Predict the structure.
Amino acid sequence: MTSPSNAADAAKLRAAVRTRYGAIAAGRSSSCCGTASNTPATVALYESPEVADLPADIAGLSLGCGDPLALASLEPGQTVLDLGSGAGLDCFLAAQRVGPGGHVIGVDMTPEMLDRARANAQRLGLSNVEFRMGEIEHLPVADASVDVIISNCVINLSPDKPAVFREAFRVLKPGGRLSVSDVLAEHPLPESLRADLESWGACVGGALPVAEYVAALEAAGFVDIQVERQFGAEEAGLDACCGGEALPVFSGRITARKPAGIASGR
Ligand SMILES: C[S@@+](CC[C@H](N)C(=O)[O-])C[C@H]1O[C@@H](n2cnc3c(N)ncnc32)[C@H](O)[C@@H]1O
């Protein structure tokens, strides 16, 4: 397979990603996109102090590459959307910050991840969090209904990033913000990484160079786009993949804003 230039390639990538993360959620596999084995490695990427208060197995099933809450400036009463919520860790942290008057929606396309996230939410007794089945390219979320979008190591996995950003723009309220941790590429990746399902699923093959990522956000209508390099491939736990070769990727923090005065899509 080459880069996802057609619908069949995109469907193949989505299926591979769903299988991979379904197996991780069900405990049948570990991952090299983060370390899904209750080790402190991905938790160490977090700045949010609340992570220490969560049960170790919930905090440990983090497959992220950073802490999308660090720059999200969440406030009580806000509505937050997590793109690719996995087992729910970032949603649970966000739920504490927005409080009982706020609302957190996690969207994920993998049924086993949704099962884990819903069970975890119940265990934590959180009533202001819900998890919806869906693809981040077709969000099951109403227009202009969200204050802040977060996401942790997911957008790189999408075969159609422009669609993700268009959907993010559509569901944000005017003036709403995006605060994302994601894997970015130092330069356009070689076809050997882009075409490899294993590398794509491990959050490497789908990483875009910063300029391309920013251009896709701009094309969707976002403004005030900032990208900050945060962790190298090794620190972010990405180097376990792809035969141990030095990978030209890093974990970055991306923030952007939907201009005030725009109700939904462009
Ligand atoms: C690397 S894990 C990150 C999970 C979570 N954000 C975390 O930090 O632990 C990627 C997650 O994104 C989900 N995912 C990947 N591509 C998706 C898509 N196109 N639409 C919805 N969910 C997706 C996967 O099912 C998986 O749960």
Confidence is low (pLDDT under 50) at residues 34-40. The longest helix spans residues 7-25. The radius of gyration is 17 Å.
